[in-house]
Amino acid sequence: MERNKLVLDLNKNKEFNYIYKLTEEQIFSKLVNLEQLTFEVTDACNLNCKYCGYGSLYSTHEKRENTFMDFEMAKKIIDYLYNIWSVHPGITSPRKIIFGFYGGEPLLNMPLIKQIVNYLESLQPIPDTIFRYNMTSNAVLLDKYQDYLAEKQFDILISLDGDEWGNSYRTDHAGNASFKRVFRNIQSLKEHYPEYFNKHITFNSVLHNRNETQAVRKFIFDNFEKYPSISELNNFGIIDTQKETFEEMYHKISSDISSLDEDFFNSSIEIMDLFRVVKYLSGNVFFTHNSLLKKTPYNIYPTGTCLPFGKKLFVTVKGNILACERIDQKHVLGHVNTNGIDLDLKKIASLYSMYYQSIKPLCEKCYRKPVCIQCMFYISNIGAKHPKCPGFLDKQSATEYINNLLSILQARPDLYEKISKEILLQP
């Protein structure tokens, strides 16, 4: 590949159609085809993990008040969306909609979860539409509810940072370690429901200064025959007085694993950078059969931000509606209140369009934009006249960035094949 030429042509490539305006019709289409509705069923948690995104390190969340969502709030948003889904068929068949349960620790509000599942199962089935359930859990209460979770085939993402020392930041509010109980609960689930465990249980491990990528992956595989996803600590929204503490704990995946390592595909966050290069810049990816006959521009929106409700709709324990659970909770798009659902799609379209216009001058000068992964909600002053984007790359920086990724693909041609088959071909 001609690396420098590839980078220098990015801003002039006619195959990309950059769009800086969003319409309410587009947002409604995302609601029709919503992939996941996630409930923050409680902001209470039975653990007090030192690095928690809702803890003392960060300023991007509302005050945690041990609040529990009630069924009426959940029912209102379910009914609102169910009425849309009943009238408007999805673009896929069957349309699979996941109902997610999040916290805090969601198992603390298991009565509500059961109410929601019972209600969903009581509704008239929608043609070509399937409901599924998932949960993110610390597994402290897993032993109490494993029978029900297995019966309902919940997909569960369990948080476990490796062995006892690697998991030692995950303590309860009295400072007691959670590892032994969590490990025992996971073993019990695996023993009692081996088939369910194999199909529906996954792990996520947070990387910090007490663990290491390959050791964590080995530990979890040796004990549970699964490899975890690895997450770095979130470096956005850190309180000034906590920056030193954060820096002490912060650990980059790239310090543990190189592109030549056998496990690079499954361990490195750079894989998604490589995926975008293959998808948008290789010239070998086609989205429809028509693309083989006639070159049609790819529509790209500013930054790497998901369109609102493009992947999920997140309802906080207080009834605020957000695009997802990972962004600053000040970015509220609507509300579930006593009168019903307050969700003005035209207003949301205008808000996103305003954000797009705010970032447009930077995007137009950025050489990374076709492969951008920057979520605009991690730009601290998005919407301001002169936002500062941490993902911005000038020509020289973009050249270095692309060349590094191309060097990886050239050194590891097997990665190109794996990306093509295991990521690009996903339905």
Plain-language structure description:
By secondary structure, this protein is of the alpha/beta class. 39% of the residues lie in helices and 14% in strands. It contains 15 helices and twelve strands. The strands form two sheets. Strands 7-6-5-4-3-2-9-10-11-12 form a ten-stranded mixed β-sheet. Strands 1-8 form a two-stranded parallel ribbon. The two termini are 29 Å apart.
Keywords:
427 residues; alpha/beta; 10-stranded mixed β-sheet; two-stranded parallel sheet
Question: What is the topological layout?
Answer:
Blueprint: H1 3-8, E1 16-18, H2 24-32, E2 36-40, H3 71-87, E3 95-102, H4 110-122, E4 129-137, H5 142-151, E5 155-159, H6 179-192, H7 194-200, E6 201-207, H8 213-224, E7 229-232, H9 243-249, H10 264-267, H11 270-281, H12 290-293, E8 298-300, E9 312-315, E10 320-322, E11 334-337, E12 340-342, H13 345-365, H14 395-411, H15 413-424
Parallel strand pairs: 1-8, 2-3, 2-9, 3-4, 4-5, 5-6, 6-7
Antiparallel strand pairs: 9-10, 10-11, 11-12
End-to-end C-alpha gap? 29 Å
| Beta strand % | 5-15%
Number of separate strands: 12
Query: Uncertain regions: pLDDT < 50 for 5+ in a row?
Result: none
* Overall residue-averaged pLDDT value: 90
Helix-and-strand structural type = alpha/beta
Please work out how many helical segments DSSP would assign.
15
**What general form does the structure show?**
globular
Major sheet size, sense and barrel closure: 10 strands, mixed
